[in-house]
Write a structure and sequence with these properties.
Elements: H1 3-18, H2 22-34, E1 43-48, H3 60-64, E2 70-73, E3 76-79, H4 89-93, E4 100-105, E5 111-114, H5 117-139, H6 143-149
Antiparallel strand pairs: 1-4, 2-3, 4-5
Helix pairs in contact: 1-2
The protein binds iron/sulfur cluster (SF4) (2 copies).
């Protein structure tokens, strides 16, 4: 294991202890960003179907989890629920549909639930298009603003 990875693991467990404090939350957020987790959630649930999990044959979810919330023990994948940020990386790489199920709650109260890689891709595409739309609306609040930027007016069309 590289020195950087070892340090990141130590940071994760240290920050887990401090996470409930304001300062801890700020450091937790910074650490997740450094691990390339751009969107994470404080509220949600995760479960793994032990009957369909291929366990030893893959362990892909364990390798993909950025916060080390998943581990292998006693013939099954364990979850440290306090470490899970419901990012979806494990569902995205799981080889069995509906094996890992995640439900997460956004700050605006909406909930998202997914259990297949395809669900995650659709969800991420939806999130990205909403962000793109918001960015475009920020630059061009209406049609007039867009036409003005192009040197045109509605009547000229
Ligand atoms: S959703 Fe999966 S990959 Fe993301 S933190 Fe939770 S267990 Fe890890
Ligand atoms: S990736 Fe899916 S099938 Fe593989 S160990 Fe994780 S939960 Fe089980």
């Amino acid at each position: 294991m590289s020195k950087n990875k070892k340090n990141a693991n130590a940071d994760i467990f240290q920050l887990l202890l401090e996470k409930k404090e304001k300062q801890g939350k700020i450091k937790w957020k910074a650490l997740l960003e450094s691990l390339n987790v751009k969107e994470f959630f404080e509220n949600g649930s995760i479960s793994i179907n032990e009957r369909t999990c291929q366990g030893l044959e893959c362990e892909l979810c364990i390798k993909a989890c950025p916060t080390k919330a998943l581990y292998w023990r006693d013939g099954k994948v364990g979850i440290i629920k306090d470490l899970c940020v419901y990012c979806g990386a494990c569902v995205l790489c799981c080889i069995v549909d509906d094996c890992i199920t995640i439900t997460r709650k956004r700050a605006d109260g909406t909930t998202e639930s997914f259990s297949k890689p395809g669900d995650v891709v659709v969800l991420f595409n939806g999130i990205n298009s909403r962000k793109r739309h918001q960015r475009v609306r920020g630059i061009f609040p209406d049609d007039e603003a867009y036409l003005k930027r192009c040197g045109k007016t509605k009547t000229a069309l």
